[in-house]
Amino acid sequence: MDSTLNLLIYAVLGYLLGSVPFAVIVSRAFGLDDPRSFGSGNPGATNVLRSGSKKAAALTLLGDAAKGWLAMFIATRVGAGDTAIGVAGLAAFLGHVFPFTLKFRGGKGVATALGVLLGLSGALAGITAGIWFAVVLFTRYSSLAALAAAAAAPLLADWLLGRTETTVIVGVMCGVLVYRHHSNIRKLLAGTESRVGGPKKKPPAA
From the CA atom positions of the chain, what is the Rg in Å? Predict the structure, then answer.
């Protein structure tokens, strides 16, 4: 059993790793505009792609996904139990979505969630990523793909892993991910959502 103190330690570790803003760091390194200044205003890989740099977007995707996986890998290597490992991943996801480094205004968490799923199971991550890719391929809506993958992930986790604690952690993570897409859901229903590969736009005024 993981003690409350251990769970707290892994949660803090995960949150700190998740708070590293790769979208902003990579964009600055490539001399690109701040990803929060155009498109959806979201500091994530999809919005970085709208800058026109596929390389920067790929590096952002890799970095954001690595945060979730790394938090769980470290917890695994120091002998944490399944619950603590899952908590570390969930905390990394929350760190990405609500990072103290960006005044708690982070990304929507798709890539980091994928990293967490990879830390739990390669099959779980692969099937979920396949659902995301298929929806993007046929619709070109990244947000719709994320919502479809988020809806499927908890069911897949329960089917593949069969651990209640893990299913709950994945469910909480996906619930937050869906919540972070609330504006995208409204745009999808209104038919005004941006498609992948669409033009670069200034974000709406706050």
Answer: 16
Residues 91-138: pLDDT tens digits? 999 999 999 999 999 999 999 999 999 999 999 999 999 999 999 999
pTM, to two decimals: 0.90
